[in-house]
Amino acid sequence: MSDLYEQLQALVGSTSGEATVGPDPVNAPMIRHMVEALGDANPVYVDEAAAKAAGFDGIVAPATMLQTWSMGGLHRKAPSPNGGWGAALVLLDGAGFTSTVAVNCEQEYVRYLQTGDRVTVTGLLESVSEEKATGLGVGHFVTTKDEYRDQDGELVGTHRFRVLKFKPGTGRNATPAKEDRPLRPRPPTTLDTQWWFDACKEGRLLIQRCTACGTLRHPPGPACASCHSFDWDTVEASGKGTVYSFVVTHHPQAPAFDYPLPIVLVELEEGTRLVSNLVDVDPDDVEIGMPVIAELVAFDDELTIPQFRPQGSKA
Amino acid sequence: MTAVFHVGDSWERVVVHDLTRTQIVMYAGASGDFHPLHHDEPTAVALGYPSIFAHGMLTMGLSGQLLTDVVGDEGLTRYAARMVGQVWPGDTLTTTLTVDAVRAGEVDLAVRTVNQDGAVVLLGSATARQ
Lengths: 315, 130
What we know:
The complex is a heterodimer of chains A (315) and B (130).
Chain A: H1 3-11, E1 20-21, H2 28-38, H3 48-53, H4 84-94, E2 99-109, E3 120-128, E4 132-133, E5 138-149, E6 155-166, H5 194-201, E7 206-210, E8 216-217, E9 232-236, E10 240-249, E11 261-268, E12 273-277, E13 291-298, E14 304-310
Helix pairs in contact in A: 1-4
Chain B: E1 10-16, H1 21-31, H2 41-46, H3 56-71, E2 76-83, E3 93-103, E4 106-114, E5 120-129
Antiparallel strand pairs in B: 1-3, 2-5, 3-4, 4-5
């Protein structure tokens, strides 16, 4: 666990300080602007007689307007950095989690606010998640809970709001589009290995065979490790094999690849092993022993290499 | 209120048709949420968005109208929503409410709002007195 996470956890349960008094009492003009913005035609929000007929003392505010009564307006001050949300914001912004997106909101309504009500709000930092990798970026989910009270100190509603504070440009969606990507890195080849890649371009997955003792070997090399003979030929692999071992790479990320990236060591049914990628699979589903089959994939004009997919999945 | 709810009861309504930038700007002013991504198009474009987009709380408010109309004035006691997808100028949103559970004096409703392409933009739940 990081120091940042521990510092954030220490703030959970704290508030930004004094309760904030809403700048204006609940009033008809602000309500009218809101119902215009929402296109809500319910007359209890604008017509005194209709509101009374519905059993209210006068015009009421739409329930979902709750959080607006404490908004600081265009020239609002930054939240106090002494605790709660304000202090969490300072830590998160300082650590590069500068972008914010609203994730969800939960409101509880004790009663409808009516004109003349004076609202006071206390904001509590309710929770901060561990660092998460999301589509938008690496970030922390931060939940605040605001309690709204009226002029008599009675609770009128609560507003729980969760945002994701994330590092811009670190999301899965930030991966460059395929057409903008750099090409895959070229495998380094030598006179002893080039033939294997050339065969891949011709659509053949080959295995080197010692013609003296018959031992198969991979990766390609000049001499047999069993009998030291320099004489060899090849056999064509069926392409079938099983996952001998694997890792799923998350970081660091190279722009030519999709992540999470399963990298597998495949044991071919002929007995040799080779390192490759596994495609058409959820990285969480990769297992040792999984039956896989090779497909020779042309990534560009120069590079054709085998990729494996689970046996039985569509080509 | 006098309505009697049954599990599975459902209501559907277009809560906004062809959402305009003007309406989003009106909501910014009325709610006091002046985040530039919701009204300043050059800023939104510079940050990689195709245009400004609606406040999540506007989508929640738009969807909430159907709730208050269905459960009656002052019936609503809780309303929670997850902002699943962004809402853009030009979008037409349709909200569906479905009764999930009925208890003594209380009813739970599921809230689902989709855009004109059928993509879900908001998933929520609400509780009301009955």
